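User: Fold this; tokens only.

Assistant: Input:
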Amino acid sequence: QSGLLNASFEGEAQDATVPVGWHACARGTTPDILPGVWGVYTEASEGDTYVGLITRDDGTWESIGQRLTVPLSANQCFKFSVDLAHSKTYSGYNQPIKLRVWGGNTKCQKAQLLLQTDLIEHSDWKTYNLKFSTEEEFRYIIFEAFYKEGSFSRRGNILIDNISKIKKCPRV
């Protein structure tokens, strides 16, 4: 199993700040440690704070990543849980968007799209139990706010908290 540093995004609530243990991966990534800025006052699902990522109508989006404590081995099924929500009052970035998760072997490399959620439209926290399979070994993981259908983009947000350890799927 592989853990993430600061998987609950604890830190001092402030805008345009990458949480401790994470690094920005997309140009213009200025994640927000919430609640308390940009009109977002939803309580954290775990601990005191969480992270908010946005997509913009110019087709750009935010993503953050980190080096895994233990690499994900190749050709394996993995599972983890994460709490996700959407804010209807995120300073104009109020549309629902998706979460995409990437695996890579260098900082911010997007070698394999591991999974993508549906649009997160609920403003209350929900725990998502997610599974993915690796094609090769990965040392890094990226969590990306995303919405783009053809040439259409949107001003949206996703709230992320409480990422569990990433474990191998049980054998059947």
